[in-house]
Fold this sequence. Notes:
single chain, alpha/beta, 11 helices, binds 3-methyl-2-oxobutanoic acid
Amino acid sequence: MSSKDFLRAKIEGRKLSMVTCYDYTFARMLSRSPIDGILVGDSAAMVMDGRPSTLSASVELMALHTEAVARGAGGKFVVADMPFLSFRKGLAAALNTASVLMTAGAHAVKLEGVDGHEDVIQRMVQSGIPVMGHLGLQPQSVHAYGGYRVQGRSEDSAQEIARQATALDELGAFAIVLECVPTDLAQEITKTIRIPTIGIGAGAGCDGQILVLQDLLGMNLDFRPKFARPFLDGERTVLDTLARFDEAVKAGTFPSREESYS
Ligand code: KIV
């Protein structure tokens, strides 16, 4: 899979599947899965480090996770998130960040929004860096929204998101993540623009879907937005497994003779 294949998939009507990943072990597993692409999301700050938002993800943190994922991903398409403000401090600073992430092993970068950093997107595209956009709920703007809220419910806001999607398409982005927008709006954008839309909380009309890996594995049952279907009861499975280990240790049945050295 490459950024070019995203466009091909849309033309051929094939849906795209993506998940987030932040570490080598899961990346190795994903390399053996049919998943089309991996996002090293800045959600790493929340999922891996327990932070309240993505704002604390630094370029260094993203590079560290991108390197680990790229080592395990076995050639799967890896997109790395440009962290908070890293693309709003001028063209040179933005290109430096993109360079760090691409040399860490990413095949593309993702950044939130478009207004005010059109030049960054254009220069990255011209420099051979595939760019993925991110519209709708942009988690790096959580404080401007006053919380994590569905975007595009009013006519004005829907038109704004649709306009930005067209702008990203025209600037040469290869795909757009649409997060937490009404199904009808996501469907309309998907029909209007040339490049694929990858939805998260944006309904079934998008060209593909992305979920945070730990959410789809049901590893965090305290956090359950309605779009984050757990495809596994991961938390229960892990807790049951730990209880079996604990029981075996305390009963003296682990380790066995075969699991010990002579
Ligand atoms: O950082 C992230 O996990 C993301 C997804 C929600 C798309 O941007």
